[in-house]
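Schema walk-through. Below, the input block comes first and the output block second. Nothing else is stored per chain. Lengths vary across the set, and this one has 233 residues.
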Amino acid sequence: MDDSFSIEEVLDPESASLVAAVELLEAGFPEGEKESQGAMQQWVSWARDGSLVPDNYHVMVARLASSGTVVGAVFFHYIDSIASGFVGYLIVKEGLRGAGIGAALLAGVREQIERDAWNSGGRHAWGIFTELDKKREAEADPYRHLRFWSAHNTLPLDMTWRYPPLGRDPPADMHLAFCPLTGSDTLSEEQACDVVRAIYACVYGRVEGKADLAAVLSDLQGRRRVGRLPVPP
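--- output ---
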């Protein structure tokens, strides 16, 4: 059986590839952690017409060579104010995990974020951030996802993190995780606060004064350095 696959970017908000990617997302994430298909289409549309500049948004899919089926997807932002990426969702079809699809998608993210940072300001990307469940109670191995990300140099930051509600269900208990691309793997208080404000502004459209954002920023006050945490074995 031919199990090879290719990685491609989705540029058309009405494409079947985006629908297939969102279907994977719907099947793999609980209600309180995911955005709607309409929201994803809007992000891709904004990116295509340049409305997000100097930020950007991308969706990449993994497609089986044998059938053309979309079996993995990653949805991510480029945030220009911190020259970094933010991965909203990474999903691989159940039964195909461990075959290198997720790793290939993350490699695509890194290449694109480096390209966005260079095209925007002639600089190297600083890092990639993402949100990770602290523990997946429903899974037989509740920390498997953390070990996957750790293998790709993405570890939870030692700080409080919470994101605003995305639907009817309350937000999940998450880490904010960091993969450094240039420089140190720890953040100063100022850098950490800049990251939080940038993610809230770009990803969630939130500004100062919101209770969830204020709580995260309050926890960072007086923190000289914010390091990364090891993940459970």
